[in-house]
Please model this.
Amino acid sequence: MQELKLAIFDVAGTVIEDHGEVVSSFVDALAAHGIGVSSEELMEFKGAAKREVIRFMGWRKRNEPLSEPAVEAVYADFERLVNERYEEQLAPIAGAEETFESLRKRGMQMALTTGFGQATLDLVVRRLGWEEWFAAKISSDEVKMGRPAPYLIFRAMERCGCRSVHEVLNVGDTPLDLQSAKNAGVAVNVGVLSGLYRRERLMCEPQDALLASVADLPALLANWK
Model:
């Protein structure tokens, strides 16, 4: 295996605690625009680009496409709600910062990718004081298709000057994270159980390892062949 040079992390549920802020914000934002959706219906879209989810749910519930102004109105409410919730409660996964330090000592670059928009991603990074850790912070605003498409990963590679997917480790907590990494062809595709999905669900997806959380990543890499 080539030397790993870039570690890419999802955000909610992977490096920050997930208390259901994303799903509840979606439920409330869609309901405010007359689109009733349950938390259970939204679970399969965890990690997806948020505007894509809004378009899909609008079609599913109304049997016709939402206009782009309608999509943007729902998205604006979602972003406001999730940002408010993160302003009130935001915490890193235990051991995440120690993992970042360990990877930096290995000489690896790090990047964040997310289905959030740039404003929410910037809020998370700023509130946690994580600006120094990441060479790239890629939001769904920067790609035409979100997960399970591989483009968030490719954009992070481009931003970091990484030439080969065989030098990339990707870490995520959702089926879409793991599918995206598989579609990108990364060298190491790691799932973590710190989000809302159980082991049995993630075992059904493409992955090279399932960890309790990112805190276990240094030990995995120390023994990786």
